[in-house]
Write the structure tokens for this entry.
Amino acid sequence: MAKYKPRLAARALILHEDRLLLVNAYPSARLGLWCAPGGGCEAGQSLPENLAREVHEETGLTITVGPPVLVNEFHDPDTGFHQVDLFFRCQLVAGDLDETWTDPEGVVTDRRFFSRTELAAGQVSFKPDSLPEAAWGTQAAHYDPLEVILK
């Protein structure tokens, strides 16, 4: 039996000037791995409310949350940790990335916009692998099967 119940998280796909916003959500930039901003959902708040709060905490940006476009799962077979990420198309409403912004939880160490070319060229380590297709693709929501977590 798994040690954990699956954790639910919401993530934002924010394109600005045809560049995708990603964050390095590992203390001390461990792994050098980038992901879409967002995080764990709190009970009593809708997924869009959770996502807008998480994006603001991690980036200082204000967004509107659009439709879901990707469901992704990952797990750690050694600990039983299992997370389900729901990715939503979002629009930037207000704010600019500010180098002095700090995540109150201290998880996000860096934030920046990446071009599709940078992601496709392998210049950036990111997860999930289907992130570019979800961000720039035109298909409706899709499911990205369970992946083993990177350590």
The helical segments are 47-59, 116-120, 131-136. The CA atoms of residues 74 and 147 lie 5 Å apart. The domain at 7-95+104-143 is CATH 3.90.79.10 (Nucleoside Triphosphate Pyrophosphohydrolase). The mean pLDDT is 88.
